[in-house]
Design goal:
This is Sugar ABC transporter ATP-binding protein. Belongs to the ABC transporter superfamily. It is a single chain. The chain has 18 helices and 20 strands. With 505 residues, it is of the alpha/beta class.
């Protein structure tokens, strides 16, 4: 019988050096059998390096990896998988030009043994069905799937390998709340059947809902390991970055009575999925769009930026009615809208191109800007503290947080009147989030109007001056000031708020 207090996996005196950089420095870490163990830390804390060591992608510079009380050498991902150590990384590993079935079978156990491969596919189909992936066909090309669907396939791919230890790195970052709930139910069921889970997420409410234990990493070292509930949100933030929660968000200035109207939207509708949306954003305001994923708020931002051809309604920018028929029209100086899409990797950047080439994309076609001038982007890159080895390197060489900074910088170079953002801090570390929050507040203070879609209610509460909640394609609630609480936002998102305010223009 398995001893619940004896570690399944133990890492002793682990160090990982990349030249002079110490990604991990004398780390001791242990994961028990049948537990969900959350790993927290900002980018550069060492958590991703730790996961790569466990999954055989990297081998430690120093130290021991002990599995079931015996030293093991995890020289390749296949060796790690043979030991039952399976990782789903944040960077999706699917091959776009292959079908779902072909991707699932790549490297699957039992290669060449038809009955084993068939059994694995049955497991994958069951996983997909249990996490709202019933619509995903095995014959579908991965390139034709949405980002959430690709993430569901990744989860199925990991679980069909019947792991003893499953590593989930930002596994739910693209999924809506209802699917996340089902994924969590599935993870708990796997734990109860004996699987250990290492779970990485930048969403604290996910950690709180799922983890049995939590380990916090900072600057390549494990700071502390504790049972879920032993420390408050504020205390955990302080362990991670040396800051309290109230320090993460810049202070909100008082509302300006003389603030000019920048963006006014009246009766905006699209395809029965967005219905009669009316709202106003003034100079200096950060206005939030909340609600469960897929309730129309993402389509609303896309429609404002001219990406939905059949959208209807009246849009006024700086007091002038405008017709935004395309992104090219939206970014022209007389309208000056900028849009930061949800999926930075496929919608915001061209991965194989250089950082500089990606920075130049938004300015292409604008007569008054020299897109090829690196100086156009220097100020924003400096304020965002972009970490890179040279602008000529491919943007794929950057971390997720730094890639998001490039997406922001390319649009901010155009000095937009109104900035439309779709979940801009999804899947990035706390320090980078803090930099983005500070930048958004500075832009607002300089007069930029900001419309921020966020799935993080802390952002809506702490950063936004006003928040509108979407449900089933409609605005069901508008709140500001003391009304912006987690309870009110969650209740309105579920359309069960008893004190719901009527949305207004």
């Amino acid at each position: 019988m398995t001893d619940p207090d004896k570690p399944l996996l133990r890492m002793q005196d682990i160090s990982m050096h990349f030249g002079a950089t110490k990604a991990l420095n004398n780390v001791d870490f242990a994961c028990k059998p049948s537990e969900i163990h959350a790993i927290l830390g900002e980018n550069g804390a060492g958590k991703s390096t730790l996961m790569k060591l466990i999954s055989g992608v990297l081998q430690p510079t120093e130290g021991r990896i002990i599995l079931d009380g015996r030293d093991v050498r995890l020289t390749t991902p296949r060796v790690a998988q043979n030991h039952g150590l399976v990782c789903m990384f944040q960077e999706l590993s699917l091959v776009p030009d292959l079908t779902v079935r072909e991707n699932l079978l790549l490297g699957a156990p039992g290669s060449g043994l038809g009955w084993l491969r068939s059994e694995a596919l049955v497991k994958a189909r069951d996983v997909l069905d249990r996490i709202d992936g019933g619509h995903i066909k095995m014959s579908a090309r991965v390139s034709d799937l949405t980002l959430p669907s690709r993430q569901q396939v990744e989860i199925a791919k990991a679980l069909m390998r019947k792991p003893r230890l499953l590593i989930l790195d930002e596994a739910t970052s693209a999924l809506n709340a209802s699917v996340v709930t089902k994924v969590f139910d599935l993870i708990r069921a796997e734990r109860d059947q004996g699987t250990s889970v290492l779970f990485i997420s930048h969403r604290f409410h996910e950690i709180e809902a799922l983890a049995d234990r939590i380990s916090v990493f900072r600057n390549g070292k494990r700071v502390e390991t504790f049972d879920n509930g032993d420390h408050s949100y504020n205390e955990i933030i302080n362990m991670m970055v040396g800051q309290r929660i109230e320090e993460l968000f810049p202070p909100k200035p008082p509302a300006r009575a003389d603030a000019q109207e920048v963006l006014k939207v009246e009766n905006f509708s699209w395809d029965g999925r967005v219905m009669d949306i009316s709202l106003t954003v003034h100079e200096g305001e950060i206005v939030g769009l909340g609600g469960l994923d897929g309730q129309g708020q993402g389509a609303f931002l896309m429609g404002l930026f001219g990406l939905l051809r059949t959208a209807e309604g009246k849009v006024t920018v700086a007091g002038k009615p405008v017709s935004v028929t395309s992104p090219k029209a939206a970014k022209q100086p007389d309208i000056a809208l900028a849009f930061i899409p949800e999926d930075r990797k496929t919608e915001g950047l061209i991965q194989e191109q250089s950082i500089l080439e990606n920075l130049q994309l938004a300015a292409i076609g604008l007569k008054d800007l020299d897109a090829s001038n690196p100086g156009l982007y220097e100020d924003t890159l400096e304020r965002l503290e972009l970490k890179h080895g040279g602008l000529e390197l491919p943007v794929s060489s950057l971390s997720g947080g730094n890639q998001q900074k490039v997406v922001l910088a390319k649009w901010l170079a155009l000095k937009p009147r109104c900035l439309l953002l779709a979940d801009p801090t999804r899947g990035i570390d706390v320090k980078t989030k803090t930099q983005i929050y500070g930048m958004l507040r500075r832009l607002a203070d300089q007069g930029t109007a900001i419309l921020l879609l966020s799935t993080d209610y802390e952002e809506l509460i702490q950063l936004c001056d006003e928040t509108h909640i979407f449900y089933a394609g409609q605005l069901v609630s508008s709140m500001s000031g003391e009304d912006m609480t987690a309870q009110n936002i969650i209740a309105a998102s579920l359309n069960v708020s008893e004190k719901r305010k009527v949305a207004h223009a």
